Structures are given as C-alpha cells and as structure tokens.
Amino acid sequence: MTSGTVWTSTDAWVFMALGGTSEDDPSPLSEIIARADAIEHAVLERTEFTTSAGRLIAAGLVASGGGGWWLTTAGQQLYAERTRRSGWRENLLRGLRRLGPPQEAPPTMEPDEVDGAAGR
C-alpha cells in the first residue's frame, strides 16, 4: 500500500461500469469500457482501468477470470447500498473510504488488452 493513497473518482467510475455483474454473469472488458463511456462520455485509459480494477480486486469488491469481470458479494452489497440514489459518485466514494486506503495491486493484463477492448 502506498502511504497517502486515497480512493478516487476513477475508482468509483470503474466500479459503476462493473455494476450489476456477478460471477454467474461476468462482463467482458469491452462491455465494461462501453458502460464506462456511457457513464462519463469518455473512454477509460489502460492505466485508469488497471489501477482502479487492481484496487477494487484488492479490496475484495471485484473479481475476474475466464475473460470476464464481476462484482463479488461484497461488491454487490456496496453497489446496492451506495449507487441507487442521486449523488452515486460521492455516496460510493464514502463507502470505499470506509474500507480504508486502497491497496495498489494492478491486475495482470496484456499491454494492449484495454486498448483492444476499447477499439483503439
């Protein structure tokens, strides 16, 4: 963990793009990037995704495997508690901050995996 590291709005953005997914219905990276674009009208950069996804995985909120990504049970609970009302970003950031500082643990990905999923 990096001293002074805090949860960011990008972490909330990535989490929202994963929202509603589960291990039984994982989302491929291309869908996550499309959802992220719909939320922010911007395409996630590789470092934005890998940094935030790593933090969310280390916190036990997100998992991945077999080409898909999903919210864990804890992630689904946080999603249900913090994103169903207006001001989802601040509500979600408050929930993330209650978990303590994020751990820096980027997932192992091919260098062009995010760019390929984003159609770049």
Account of the 3D structure:
With about 120 residues, the chain is mostly helical. It has 6 helices and 3 strands. It has helices at about 10-20, 30-40, 45-60, 75-80, 90-95, 115; strands spanning about 25-30, 60-65, 70. It has a 3-stranded antiparallel sheet. Strand 2 and strand 3 form a beta hairpin. Helix 1 packs across helix 2 (about 30-40), helix 1 packs across helix 3 (about 45-60) and helix 1 (about 10-20) packs across helix 5. It is globular and about 30 Å long. The mean pLDDT is about 85.
Core attributes:
120 residues, mainly alpha, 3-stranded antiparallel β-sheet
Describe the structure in brief:
The chain has 120 residues and is mainly α.
Termini Cα gap:
31 Å
Please give the order of strands in the largest beta sheet: 1-3-2
Write down the oligomeric state: single chain
Number of strands: 3
Total count of helical runs of at least 4 residues = 6
Specify Rg, calculated over alpha carbons. 13 Å
The assigned structural class equals mainly alpha
* SSE succession: HEHHEEHHH
> Which runs of at least 5 residues are low in confidence (pLDDT < 50)?
none
Mean pLDDT: 85
Q: What helical percentage do the residues reach?
A: 40-55%
Backbone shape: globular
Percent of sequence in beta strands: 5-15%
Largest sheet: 3 strands, antiparallel
